[in-house]
Amino acid sequence: MKSERHKGSRALRLVPWITLALFLGPVLAGLAATALPAFGYLPALGGDQFNLHSWQRLFEVPGLTRAAGLSLWTGLLATLLTVILVFGFCSAMHDTALFRKSQIILSPLLATPHVALAIGLAFLIAPSGWLVRLVSPWLTGWTRPPDIAMVQDSLGLALVLGLLIKEVPFILLMTLSALNQVPTRETLLTARSLGYSPVAAWLKVVLPRIYPQIRLPIYAVLAFSMSVVDVAVVLAPTTPPPLSVMVFRMFMDRDLTMIFPASAGACLQFLLVAAAIGAWRLGEILVARGARPWMLRGHRKRSGPPLYYAWGGLVISLVALSVVGTLTLGLWSFAHTWFYPLALPSAWTLSHWLRHLPDLAGPALTTLLLGLAAASLALVLALGCLQNERVNGVGPASRMLWLLYLPLLVPQIAFLFGAQMLLVRLDLDGTWPALIWAHLLFVFPYVFLALADPWRAFDPRYRNTALALTGSRLRTFFRVELPMMLKPVLFAFAIGFAVSVGQYLSTIFAGGGRFTTLTVEAVTLATGNDRRVIGIYALTQAVLPLLVYGMAIVLPAFLQRRQERRNR
Amino acid sequence: MKKGVLLTLIVVVAACIPAAAQVAEDWESIVDKARGQTVYWNAWAGDENTNSFIAWVGRRVKEDYQIDLRHVKISLTSESVSRVVAEKAAGRDTGGSVDMIWINGENFLAMKDQGLLFGPFTQLLPNFQLVDTEGKPTTIIDFTVPVEGMEAPWRMAQIVYVYDALRLPEPPRSIPGLLEWARENPGRITHPQIRNFLGSTFLKQALYELVEDADVLGKPATDANFATVTAPLWAWYEELKPLMWRRGEQFPESGPAMRQLLADNEIDIMISFSPNEASTAISKGLLPDSVRTYVLDKGTIGNTSFNAIPYNAANKEGALVVINFLLSPESQAHAQNPEVMGNFTVLDLDRLSPEERRLFTDLPRGPATLSDAELGRPLPEPHPSWMDRIVAAWEQRYSR
Question: Do both B175 and B263 map to the same domain?
Fold first, then answer.
């Protein structure tokens, strides 16, 4: 018995190392492929000496400073607003039915691909968009749309809004799962019975306990907002664009030697993201220090009810924007002609669906298999790493796991070029393992993010009791830990699946053009800017993740009910 | 005698070494080797009509040559170019994943300069004899760069301007006239962002008309002449820019995004590189029926789309057969049908048999498509260095 247990824990000890090995190869190859050309080295394009020309060329690119500033500004603003909205919503709405249902309401938004949401939003708020069409020309007198920059505004506010639509649900869901791990209700009741208003009670006693658990997701949001390309192309200003778009365009430039300054740009972007995270961390410390007197003073003040509705209203309007945006894209998919200022299509047709449906089956199957494989693998690895941490303590490998977040922090385009070279070297490009691996790079960090904190916050007494009763670590894991943690586990799986479904560049680079997923189809067809086709792909792209999210919500409740019935 | 045999042997072996890495020289054996190959054609997939055309080509080469043609759908040509670069960097000099790539202009020049292309190969293609290399010089000179057989033409393109005749009965037919018109109608014209090829095309076309002597554009731009030659362009653009859509501060991402602006009544005129774009857009419901096409009185720039084969392509024979099929009268006429793609042929109709010629003359013409006579003889593309410098100068001036 004893030796068996030892074997088990030794095997577990390997999991973080395996994970690191799986990741570090492509991560390091990717980083090297970014860093080397940034310092002049890429023999395939005649760069065989180390020098600083790439940086020189980068700094000569017009508008670089403004592009970097725009990235920093939109990234920080979007993250800050996300956090304020989520905390405001949670503190004000904590007891409402809306709050309890928000997980179900918000999940579809996570499932809808970023680009589709961005295009839907752009169509809503553009001067020739749906909102203006609703009131034109009968109310506004605008027989032609006004020449105002509602999207692609030079401050990047449309981009911030587009990011909020996606990030608020993500952070809110992360917060909800963190809230499940602390005795929120009891803590709040105590604080309120001491005379604190609900909002103050939440901010003073709940937030400090959950913030450490959602810190990493917030950093991921910050990094994502600063390096996103596809959403920025639709919503961000163009002269100059944010740094991410600028670097992307340099990588894709017809002049192949632009890879040199582009790599330097990718390094710059990496540094910028690191600096922004550092600044955020500093902000956290300052806010915590500044708020301590307020938290300890014990001052009680009544807060008026209107505030409740304001927070709820803001979050609901965000949800409404994305839902209505997606629905109008759905409308487009049935439109033959639909010109300004009509609020509805002038001619309807089923032909777009009939033409595209036969082509959807193949990509849908590839997407499904890929997503299931990547999310399952990521889940197994994440559970293994976390379980090892619990059983064997935090070893050197576990301490290095933060490296796994690198794929989220490095601009994808730079990093994938190196990973692609590695795959070609290994003769693996264009194969299923390569593709699953490439997806895993981006799926695993999110799965780990979603799972790590709930898992670490799991009360060890359950485990100890179960271990004492069964004497088997495996049975403890499968009979007690996993069932009790089923909700966050399935939720992490669903997030991983959705991340896999949304992968574009990684599919292109690792797939060698041999695999077509729904997103690859959607993004390439989106360059044709036909809203009807985009509508079809946006809807079908959302269906698969929606089903998986639905399962993640329904299955635990179903199993629990069955268990209760059996116990009765 | 012995010596002679040895010598012959050496010559034969020596001749075989490069030939083994390349392809056979006679068409019969190329077609034989091509049978059963799977050809990966990397082509921009943003246009549904082109995608359907590629699917049709796939069915036809399957019937005739048992070739499996796979359309690798890409959103930018550079995606595939960078894949070839990655393969070269990783040392995969045979068995590459890209067999055929739709390309032209700067992308072609870059790949050619970096030794990433297979060829010359056009002399191997029987149907290349039919190409109108004299009447359509852009089929062998891509943006003033001699093609030297490293890519094969497959469709013609020419700059046209698209407008809504209901909103704008008399569109301006000259570059100075465009500025005049914009003064009276501010905010109603734009061009795609400058890094998009249509964005720089907008300026290139203007330069053609404003430059004192267009001959200079056929040679590479130099530090000495760039500023003087382009001075009239910048004077014109400086005035036009604040009169453009969003006061010339924002630009649509691409040609299709600009077409959406025309459909949404945000602008009145757009530039296009496909003479048939307006007609196909009408039939697909993407633009109103009242949309029409025109060219400038002094003519517009034309060019050609090509296909090239990367140096390390795994299925070169298959790619050659597909490219040859694309040059067949059957395929060219199918492509020129406005209901299919509406792209003008690269072939010389005089070299075809009467039945083959009828395939073209019987084609319907779209409501918004100009006739060959109306389009006029296309102007040649300036040397790529002009485009590169114009983009750089534009960014210097306006993107900061």
Answer: yes
